Amino acid sequence: MSYDLTVYCPGSPTVDQVMLLVGNTRGLHADPVNSDESGVMVLRGAKRGYSFTVDGPFSVEAGDVPEEITAVLPDAATMFQILVEGNQETDSSHGIRFARKLAKTCHGAVLDEQTAEVWPRPRTAAPLGMVDKRVREGVNDVWLSWLLLEDDLPADFLGRYLQIAEELLPEAAPVRFGRYEPLQMRFDTVGAEGFINEYYNSESNNWEILYENPSPITFGKIVGSELSHGNPFTRITLCADSRSLADEPLRSALRSFFLTVATELGAVYASAEVVKGQDKERRPLFYVPPTQWVGFQPYPLWWVWAGPRLAPEIGRFLGPRTEEHNGGLFRAFSDEPLDRDALTDVLGPENLPWIPAEYSATYTDHQMAPLAVASVIPEVLRNREPLDLPPGIYNPPRNH
């Protein structure tokens, strides 16, 4: 969980100038150990505890600047990203105040990524609907994800992934990509080799890459495992525009792509879920380091895949319409993509929950972090014992 702000500037401030601004802000200090040319870690108070980070500067092109910003800053050339990890209210307020101070210093503007609010506010009213554009664009997206264990991961998995996309679903092949936004590289210029090199381009072996495409596949993210931090999972995520999936041939191609990636790359678990707006709350993995499995989503998904190592434990819960593929099991809970509420109506109470409650984490409404992790976690997904979760999240003993 985090609070994110982006500062856009018409000029090109340097990291040294940002560090000087931090030093001139009462109560804040730049951490010299964890600050370099790519950004600044900011500490607060006499004890100098972590407060937030300032990443950048990053160059931006006109097409990368949100309309909310161009309304107040038509000549944005540089951006900084301010990340307040943990979403603590006090540190969020310090991050917001510093973002505004940085924007004022560079004669720029701040975009609050949570609310799409801009500071300073436009002198004229924004066009109707502009503020909620980010929410409306995400309505009824289909989020597909594959979870790959390090022990099963082919050495050339990225090359094979790109080849599968080009052969079965060219719309899923990357167009623009990079390690941070705005994305700096183009696939048609550097090809698969450039994409693979960029993924592994990390001195700390923190492998990650993002890509953006035109509809129907609008976003992709691949995040590698970090064995040194107890995380054996490589995760591939795609976002598709569900409106385009009304087209049956495209839906069939997406299904073939989904299953081929799952089988050829050895996914232990994969799913496809229709998500309303930005409501991406119930994730099987808890991403506060170390990344950990906390339980299956407690509601029905559009597609579920259990790989050969997971199928013996959860396959019996997938129902009579389950299909076998290369030792794994696949269940489509509907033909066309349906969200959780529609699937609940279609399946009926006699078929819910799709998996026993003890396999799912416990949540309250509108809460991203679980109140409690699942009491039954399949052995293949138990990357840490006991789980290392933040205070306040109940971690029951495992049922073996």
Describe this structure in words.
The chain has helices at 15-23, 67-70, 89-105, 133-137, 157-168, 187-199, 248-264, 311-314, 340-347, and strands at residues 2-9, 28-30, 39-44, 49-59, 78-85, 109-112, 118-119, 141-149, 176-178, 185-186, 208-212, 217-223, 233-241, 267-275, 285-286, 292-293, 303-306, 323-325, 328-332. The chain is α+β, with helices and mostly antiparallel strands and 400 residues long. It folds into two domains: 2-133, TATA-Binding Protein, CATH 3.30.310; 138-173 and 213-381, ACT domain (Alpha-Beta Plaits, 2-Layer Sandwich), CATH 3.30.70.260. The strands form three sheets. A ten-stranded antiparallel β-sheet has the order 10-9-11-12-13-8-14-17-19-18, covered by helices on one side. Strands 2-3-4-5-1-6-7 form a seven-stranded antiparallel β-sheet, with helices on one face. It has a two-stranded antiparallel ribbon with strand order 15-16. Helix 5 runs antiparallel to helix 7. The longest helix is centred in the first third of the chain and has 17 residues, at 89-105. The radius of gyration is 22 Å and the shape is globular.
